[in-house]
Design a protein that fits this description.
The complex is a heterodimer. Chain A is mostly helical. Chain A has a domain at about 280-520. Chain A is built from 23 helices and 2 strands. A two-stranded antiparallel ribbon of chain A has the order 1-2. Chain A is globular. In chain A, about 60% of the residues are buried. By secondary structure, chain B is an all-alpha fold. Chain B has a domain at about 635-660. Chain B has helices spanning about 10-25, 30-55, 95-115, 125-140, 145-165, 170-200, 205-215, 220, 225-240, 250-255, 260-270, 275-280, 285, 290-310, 315-335, 340-370, 385-400, 405-420, 425-450, 475-490, 505-510, 515-555, 560-565, 565-575, 580-630, 635-660, and strands at about 65-70, 80, 85, 85-90. The radius of gyration of chain B is 30 Å and the shape is globular. In chain B, about 50% of the residues are buried. The chains are: A mainly alpha, B mainly alpha. Chains A and B meet through helix 6, helix 8, helix 12, helix 14 and helix 17 of A and strand 2, helix 5, helix 6, helix 25 and helix 26 of B.
Chain lengths: ~525, ~650
């Protein structure tokens, strides 16, 4: 039997089946933890099938492990799944983070465990679904589905009384722009009669989606806005800090970034190449500002979670910068950096979570001198810090280097200045991370460590953290292992954009707006 | 001699890395003797390898460069469509000198550390970091492309951070480490931007590729292509960070919070010279931009005299040496800036000997006094610690430029080359260099007299339980070796004017291929000028010695009286020109205030979160209007329906053309 045809369905629905099993199991002792661990580990093993059977030699940019069967005849909705170089490693990453999330919640979540782990698995289903769906309608179902478990997780398991507010804020921020996404999607269907992404992308290449350039613009902005809020892009990050401050560690690990960045690459870029290209100067500027803004605000926080939230904003802005340069280096680096940011961010939040478990606070001023008490925590913390600040031979350096060298090559206006602005991020990240290390781990013992004993890493925490640290090194030393697949996507995407610019559209009205003089000025309208 | 496979050079960095892994993971549980044995073995082996490399590469007919590339899984390190960077090492004569310094002096300092750190806790951690440093430093000098050089560049910065903050319980040490890293990051920012521009304009970061391209396209320079000077200036920013030049020198004096062997290894002999190495490595690039070269020379000269002036009034023995290091690095910068790369590397070599010696000897003094670093509480140690005294004397005479010690030849070469390069600017730089030489001689002999001569001023309470003692042999042996090198190290480059053969310059000729310049300069000016200049600089050094002798030996108190009389000028220098305070008041504080006041309150709370709340309020407002509409009145519904339909029709009629112009 060839598993290749059903592997994607398995990856999506094994966690769903697992969630059903969990609802039936009794919530006693550590049953929930072990069951969730088993399900997530199984899913992870299934995702590992992909890189081992991925055909690197086949047509670059094509989908593999594809499954395309009609689901509903009218409107034409297909059950269409597939992965390519863009989504493959994101799936493996999502697969890896889930068991780590279970391990790190082992002790931290001790009330309503069944609810927690069921929601956690549903979140996993939604994310996997987002990464594999090639039918817009199917995709939208998973996209909306991803909002609900997260909102409930924040509202129920948040750490303070502000959790409900944070949950509502998160939901509204994500849900309202999703309405625009839905409207734009339906408009696309009305124009083309298909929800199928590869077909839509092919139409877009021929400038054949709609003769109405204005409507196309509005639809593209609907897509972009829905994704940009969810990334989040500066200045649409109003939900981020509250949600990160409140959400439990396992939820924060998958909260921001990858699904929305992926969606932007997969849908916005493929269906609206022209418009994405035109809006790029604006997005690059916002990204460069976001990097500096996130870095500066992280520098003045005393709350560790808020610091991490602004750090996340800065890191995500780096990725935005890379993908919107439309250069091979920028796209490759941006996608690679999605993996790096997720891993480093996950490890960072796990460490913050285990400090909170021990000392019950995220206030930096309560800490101090922990390196004497918890040497292993300090060691891993420093390693994670080095990854976040982009030390060469660790993973993030490769991503940041490619992103910034891509942005230096980009054809858009002011790219030299914006690259320089963005590159100050490497100074700021070092400043805020080392400030935190110093406050928490160095100098004399602070009030909390004096009052509470604390304990060094236990076996479970070692198991959760060291694989991530090992990956930092592996991904820094041999990025080619990952980059082969990513580059096949990045290179074909960059070629694609170049080709679209080379062939003028048929419609005279659209032609007028794509003349070279206005290429960079379009976004300012 | 059997030829060595080129891949052997990979063991030079990888062996210390293995040492780091062993001590870093198991060291906590191992006995100290095992930890130090591991650390020493894994640094002695690369030193032996480098010695072997010397012998093979210096035989006549041997290739001038050895190259080796590692491709894991058949791919490069970073390989994407259109860009490629490898794990590639190359060894030429410049790298040989650097490797000799790094592994040789590094190994000596490892030996010294076994004695110096014997009573410290975290012994294993110290040696693990030290080995890690050796790994990164070797990578830095072996790298065959900018990206791999940057690996070493950042890596040594990391080790510097970890080792400065070795006593992390002390807030001052933790702060100093952080400051060093962040200031270095400012330099790295420049380095990174330079790399991005190199990728844009050359499509590659390989040294050979970039330099060949520049050599083959002389029209760039003639047409005034702006990217070459830009790249050079950005690289200078990087070098200024790593090599502690104006305006980024501020981290180095604070770095003295680290253990003394660290100061000797990282902050004197090796890491801080990385900037000079990088400029010399990129000489093709810098030669293409006269502007950049002038900037290098001016920064170097300015830093040299500026740091020397501060060094004259410091009381902490290690801080004197720190400012002296900054000042000497300025010399090397100046040499590179006037195009005398070989002279700069020559001084780098001799400096690594005598400055490592001075730091280690200072460490021995501090060790003898149980941690005292203030020279006002020293004195008369000549008889108590005789071996340390004699070794330190060699170092002091070497740095002061007294012939025939090592520093004399290299410093004199720089001054002569600066003067002889037929450029009015360079005459000014030469004068500055000469003045600096005098000041250097003065503050070093000041240190010498205050520490070893005169009445003992040791605080009796501080050392009551511990008599002043000579250091153990583990510490003295490296001192003796380095003292020997500080005396004789300069003899490898005796100029022709003094009966030598410019050995250093000839050795580096294959690297800085336009080595014909040396003969050309000598031919135009003749040996007479060189001899006169040499005489002048020796006289200046002796003058420095004499003033120090009068101030601190013959009539102690003269200096204090002088300071009293010029109290205002003295205060300026004493407070290090308030540069740190200036940066704090005009850069850091405003930035933080802007962040807290404008960004956090106005933008974050006002705009980012406020817009969300405003949207919420607007929704409530709309809902209120909506409630008004839902009145239950059929006629009102009909009216709304008509308005809505009209709107839809209007959009259908005019929308097309309207959106067409959007």
């Amino acid at each position: 039997m060839n598993i290749d045809h059903i592997i994607l369905s398995l990856i999506v629905f094994v966690p769903l089946a697992g969630a059903l099993v969990l609802t039936l199991l009794p919530d006693r002792g550590k049953t929930m933890q072990w069951a969730a661990l088993a399900v997530t580990l199984l899913t992870f093993v299934l995702t590992l099938h992909l890189p081992f059977h991925y055909s690197y030699a086949s047509h670059p940019g094509g989908f593999q492990f594809e499954r395309n069967v009609p689901w509903i005849a009218a409107p034409a909705i297909h059950y269409h799944l597939g992965v390519d170089g863009l989504s493959m490693w994101l799936m493996v990453l999502t697969g890896l983070l889930a068991p780590l999330g279970v391990l790190i919640s082992w002790r931290a979540i001790d009330q309503r465990k069944k609810l927690f782990y069921v929601l956690f698995l549903l979140q996993q289903v939604a994310m996997m679904g987002i990464f594999v769906s090639l039918d817009m309608f199917l995709y939208y179902a998973f996209w909306e589905m991803s909002l609900v478990p997260m909102t409930v997780l924040i509202a129920t398991f948040g750490r303070s009384e502000k959790r409900r507010r944070a949950a509502i804020k998160y939901f509204l921020y994500a849900f309202i722009p999703s309405g625009l996404l839905l409207a734009a999607m339906l408009w696309l269907y009305a124009q083309t009669g298909t929800f199928d992404l590869p077909k839509l992308a092919a139409l877009a290449t021929q400038h054949a989606i709609s003769p109405n350039a204005g409507a196309l613009w509005i639809a593209s902005l609907g897509f972009l806005l829905a994704f940009a809020v969810k990334v989040p892009v500066f200045p649409l990050h109003g939900w981020l800090v509250d949600a990160i401050s409140e959400a439990p560690t396992a939820a924060v690990m998958v909260l921001a970034g990858k699904t929305a960045l992926y969606s932007m690459l997969r849908f916005s870029f493929a269906i609206f190449p022209e418009q994405s290209h035109r809006v790029a100067p604006l997005m690059i500027a916002l990204a460069a500002i976001g990097i500096v803004y996130g870095g500066l605000l992280a520098l003045v926080q005393n709350d560790l979670k808020k610091l991490a939230a602004y750090s996340t904003l800065g890191q995500l802005s780096f990725i935005m910068l890379g993908i919107f340069t439309f250069t091979i280096a920028g796209l490759d680096g941006g996608i690679y950096q999605i993996l790096n940011e997720s891993l480093a961010g996950a490890a960072f939040f796990m460490l913050l979570g285990l400090l909170y478990e021990r000392y019950g606070t995220y206030d930096m001023r309560q800490y101090g001198g922990l390196a004497q008490r918890l040497p292993w925590v300090a060691t891993v913390f420093v390693l994670v810090t080095l990854s976040i600040i982009g030390l060469p031979i660790l993973n993030s350096f490769v991503g940041e280097f490619l992103i910034l060298s891509g942005s230096m090559q980009s054809p858009f206006a002011h790219h030299h200045l914006l690259t320089a602005l963005a590159a100050t991020g490497v100074i700021l990240s070092a400043a805020y991370m080392l400030r935190m290390i110093q406050r928490v781990f160095y100098c004399e013992l602070g009030p909390k460590p004096q009052a509470v004993a604390g304990w060094n890493l236990d076996a479970r925490e070692h198991i959760a953290l060291w694989p991530v640290v090992a990956l930092f090194l592996a991904m820094g030393l041999c990025p080619s292992l990952w980059m082969r697949a990513i580059d096949s996507y990045g290179a074909s995407m960059a070629d694609h954009f170049a080709a679209i610019h080379a062939t003028p559209p048929a419609d005279p009205a659209a032609l007028q707006t794509t003349s070279p003089q206005t290429t960079t000025g379009g976004a300012r309208r | 001699m059997n030829p060595m496979p080129a891949s052997t050079i990979w063991f030079i960095p990888l062996l210390p890395f293995a040492g780091f892994l062993i001590n870093g993971t198991l060291g906590r549980r191992l006995p100290r003797a095992v930890v130090s044995t591991v650390a020493l073995l894994f640094t002695a082996a690369p030193a032996a390898l480098v010695a072997w490399l010397w012998t093979t590469m210096c035989t006549s007919g041997a290739p001038n460069t050895i190259e080796s590339v590692i491709r894991p899984y058949g791919y490069g390190w970073i390989a994407i469509t259109g860009f490629h960077a490898d794990f590639a090492f190359t060894v030429d004569h410049l790298t040989l000198i650097m490797l000799g310094v790094v592994t040789g002096v590094g190994f000596l300092i490892h030996i010294y550390s076994v004695g110096y750190m014997a009573h410290e806790e975290g012994y294993w951690r110290f040696f693990a970091y030290l080995n890690l440093f050796m790994f990164f430093m070797s990578v830095l000098v072996l790298a065959a492309n900018f990206l791999l050089l940057f690996v070493g560049w950042e890596g040594v910065g990391l080790c510097s951070y970890l080792l400065i903050g070795f006593y992390f319980k002390k807030a001052s040490a933790a702060n100093a480490g952080k400051k060093a890293f962040i200031v270095n990051r400012i330099g790295d920012f420049g380095f990174l931007l330079a790399m991005f521009l190199l990728v844009v304009h050359f499509g590659s970061l390989d040294f050979s590729q970039v330099f060949t391209d520049i050599a083959q396209n002389p029209q760039w320079q003639q047409q005034g292509a702006h990217f070459l000077p830009t790249i050079c200036l950005l690289l200078i920013l990087g070098a200024a960070g790593k090599s502690a030049q104006i305006p980024l020198y501020i981290w180095l004096p604070d770095a003295m919070e680290g253990p003394t062997p660290v100061s000797a290894l990282i902050h004197a002999a090796t890491m801080v010279t990385a900037g000079i190495y990088m400029v010399a490595r990129c000489h093709v690039l810098f030669n293409s931009s006269p502007l950049a070269l002038s900037v290098v020379a001016i920064i170097g000269a300015a830093t040299a005299i500026f740091a020397a002036s501060i060094g004259m009034v410091q009381h902490d023995i290690k801080r004197v040496l720190a400012y002296s290091t900054i000042s000497q690095l300025g010399y090397m910068f100046m040499a590179c800036g006037v195009g005398a790369y070989a002279a700069g590397i020559f001084h780098l070599l001799t400096h690594s000997f005598f400055k490592a010696l001075l730091f280690l000897a200072a460490g021995s003094v501090i060790h003898a006094l149980s941690g005292e670093q203030d020279m006002r509480k020293m004195g008369g140690l000549r008889t108590r610690t005789p071996i340390t005294f004699w070794c330190m004397s060699a170092g002091v005479f070497a740095i002061a430029g007294i012939p025939p010690f090592a520093g004399f030849f290299s410093k004199d070469e720089i001054l002569y080359r600066t003067f002889a390069s037929n450029n009015p600017l360079h005459i000014v730089l030469w004068l500055i260099g000469l003045a600096t030489a005098g000041m250097t001689s003065f503050y070093m002999f000041r240190l010498w007299f205050k520490t070893f001569f005169g009445e003992p001023r040791v605080d009796p309470h501080a050392t009551a339980h511990h008599s002043i003692h000579e250091s153990p042999w583990f510490m003295l042996l490296p001192l003796v070796v380095l003292a020997f090198l500080s005396v004789t190290g300069g003899w490898v480059g005796i100029p022709a004017a003094l009966g030598g053969n410019n050995g250093m310059e000839r050795f580096l000729d294959p690297v800085f291929t336009n080595g014909t310049a040396a003969e050309a300069v000598a031919a135009t000016t003749g040996h007479a000028l060189e001899l006169v200049l040499t005489l002048v600089s020796v006289l200046v050094a002796v003058a420095g010695f004499y003033i120090a002798y009068v101030f601190y030996y013959e009539k102690p108190g003269t200096a204090d009286a002088l300071a009293e009389r010029n109290s205002r000028a003295y205060a300026v220098v004493k407070n290090k020109y308030w540069v740190d305070e200036f940066y704090n008041a005009f850069l850091i504080t405003p930035l933080l205030m802007f962040t807290r006041g404008i960004l956090e309150i106005v933008v974050e709370r006002g705009v980012v979160n406020g817009s969300g709340q405003a949207a919420g309020a607007a929704t409530r407002g709309l809902a209120w209007i909506e409630r008004k509409q839902i009145s239950g009145n059929i006629r009102s519904y009909a009216g709304w329906l008509a308005i809505g339909a009209a709107a839809v029709i209007a959009v259908m009629l005019f929308g097309q053309s309207m959106w067409g112009h959007l």
